[in-house]
Amino acid sequence: MKTLIVYYSAQWHTKTIAEKISAEIGADLFEVKPAEAYSEADLDWTDGTSRVYREHKDEKLRKVALESTNAPDWDSYERVIVMYPVWWGIAAWPLSSFVTSVDFGEKEVIPVAVSHSSPLGDSGKLLAEAAKGGDWKNGIRFSQDATDAEIKDWTKTL
């Protein structure tokens, strides 16, 4: 099944795991990039004045403009793995902005969260509810320190 991994990585954790999954299954990669990148200060969720904190408190601010939502050869993919960090129990807003901007049609879609301590929770379910189309499957959460063996074990289930 031709697979595309669409990922947003606020730091390097999600990107690293996306690259490992890609290498295991031969998937292509598409990185979601905010038009205005998040700085380290923006990502400081403990600071009540930081960008992510303000966006968390005001849902209207969560519609993040992206550099592009045009993944090359989008129509040729049968499966899309969407990967993201978990912010306050949900998918990071840039990935959510991508999901609501494209039509998944009949593609199989698998949400994959990457987090130090937060569980998958309802993040995958909420993405599915917000998406246009797609055959959304149950998701999985990897620790940001996931081992190559853990990743390989999961990719064998695809």
Structure commentary:
The structure is a single chain. The model has no long low-confidence stretch (mean pLDDT 90). The protein has 158 residues and is α/β, with parallel strands linked by helices. The protein has one domain: Rossmann fold. 28% of the residues lie in helices and 27% in strands. It has five helices and seven strands. Strands 1, 2, 3, 4, 5, 6 and 7 form a seven-stranded mixed beta sheet that branches.
Give the SSE map.
Blueprint: E1 3-7, H1 13-25, E2 28-31, H2 51-57, E3 79-87, E4 90-91, H3 93-101, E5 103-115, H4 123-130, E6 132-136, E7 140-143, H5 148-155
Parallel strand pairs: 1-2, 1-3, 3-5, 5-6, 5-7
Antiparallel strand pairs: 3-4
List keywords for this structure.
single chain; 158 residues; alpha/beta; Rossmann fold; 7-stranded mixed sheet; 7 strands; 28% helix; 27% strand; globular
